[in-house]
Design brief:
The protein is α+β, with helices and mostly antiparallel strands and about 350 residues long. It is globular and about 55 Å long. Strand 13 and strand 14 form a beta hairpin. It has 2 domains: about 120 residues, 60s Ribosomal Protein L30, Chain: A; about 170 residues, PurM-like C-terminal domain (Phosphoribosyl-aminoimidazole Synthetase, Chain A, domain 2), CATH 3.90.650.10. The chain contains 8 helices and 14 strands. Helix 5 packs across helix 8.
Length: about 350
């Protein structure tokens, strides 16, 4: 540098956020958090172009022949295949049925694709199929089409399942983040974290003071009970990958509003709290498979909460927070000590392969 060159203004320098420039897929890309969103937004959507109209959601509502249909697809790679409270077969049905229910749809039909690894025992495939059939009957849906593929030994993990589902959305139902407004009440249908901890305990052979059993269940009847109180619910989400934190962040971002959660109001079973403390996990980020979060107008919130508590799948329902105009797009938790903390969108996933 010459003697006459101007000295750099160090106070004006900024440090840009690091770019997650990864040449290969990592497990975090499948976690339903920020890395998943980056993969979709930066790689998939630009390639699809106008073939993928926005917004993309777990369940798209489309019009066909004068009817409003909800359409969803999902893939399931859970490990292990069987766990306390369910199996990959239960997840394959309930996960897709629940995505449809979050659009307010009554699920009607499913497809089922099986990807089998060469060498997997036929008895294992039979158990998965039986669980899948039983879950479909319990959810009131029919599996009307499907496919089977086999990959070489060592190129799979026993059984993977893909399902797609369609259902009818009743007139007057409009569930989407853009309808959320300040003053809305945030409702949760029950205790969080049990599915993720049930998977982890089975996978890692962990034992806790009390057994933790997955909450895997179809939520369609619970949603119908809530909509019977008022069709004016603003948005519903089932907090699966990324847990409650991911769902709340998605809604906050989509609505442009802030969300305040009372941390002590979020139901966490003692066994889940203990397991999370031992494993260094936050229950708000642990996956669920039989819970929903609802944003309801304040004037209807008490009646909706009562309807939830009267249903077997909502007996533990609670008010956990509210929507505010402050800090738009952010989720903030008020702690039991009177402080606050930001509840960020998870980067990847605390527990991979949980669905």
């Amino acid at each position: 540098m010459s003697d006459t060159a101007a000295a750099p203004d160090l106070l004006s320098w900024t440090c840009p956020a690091p770019v997650r420039d990864r040449p290969r897929v990592v497990m975090g890309h499948g976690g339903g958090g920020a890395m998943s969103a980056e993969l979709i937004e930066q790689i998939v959507l630009p390639a699809l172009g106008t073939a993928a109209p926005a917004p993309l959601t777990d369940s798209a509502v489309v019009e066909l022949g004068g009817a409003r249909l909800a359409f969803s697809t999902d893939s399931f790679v859970v490990r292990p295949l069987f766990f306390p409270g369910g199996s990959i077969g239960d997840l394959a049905v309930n996960g897709t049925v629940n995505d449809l229910a979050m659009s307010g749809a009554r699920a009607a039909y499913l497809s089922c694709g099986l990807i089998l690894e060469e060498g997997v025992e036929i008895d294992t495939v039979a158990r998965v199929a039986e669980a899948l059939g039983a879950a479909a009957r319990a959810a009131g849906v029919r599996v009307v089409t499907g496919d089977t593929k086999v990959v070489e030994a060592g190129h799979g993990d026993g059984v993977y399942v893909n399902t797609a589902g369609v259902g009818l959305v009743p007139a007057g139902i409009d569930l989407r983040p853009q309808r959320v407004v300040p003053g809305d009440v945030v409702l949760l249908s029950g205790a969080v974290g049990v599915h993720g901890i049930a998977i982890m305990s089975e996978r890692e052979n962990l034992r806790f003071e009390a057994d933790v059993v997955s909450d895997c269940a179809p939520l369609g009847s619970l949603v119908e009970a809530m909509l019977a109180v008022t069709p004016d619910l603003h948005v519903l989400r089932d907090p699966t990958r990324g847990g409650l934190a991911a769902s709340l962040n998605e809604i906050a971002a989509g609505s442009g509003c802030g969300v305040v959660v009372q941390e002590r109001s979020v139901p966490v079973p003692p066994a889940v709290a203990g397991a999370c403390a031992m494993l260094g996990l936050d229950p708000m980020y642990v996956a669920n498979e039989g819970k929903l979060v609802a944003f309801a107008p304040r004037g209807h919130a008490d009646a909706v909460l009562a309807a939830m508590r009267a249903h077997p799948l909502g007996a533990g329902a609670a008010v956990i927070g509210e929507v505010v105009a402050e800090h738009p797009g952010m989720v903030v938790a008020r702690t039991g000590l009177g402080g606050t903390r930001v509840v960020d969108m998870p980067l990847g996933e605390q527990l991979p392969r949980i669905c």
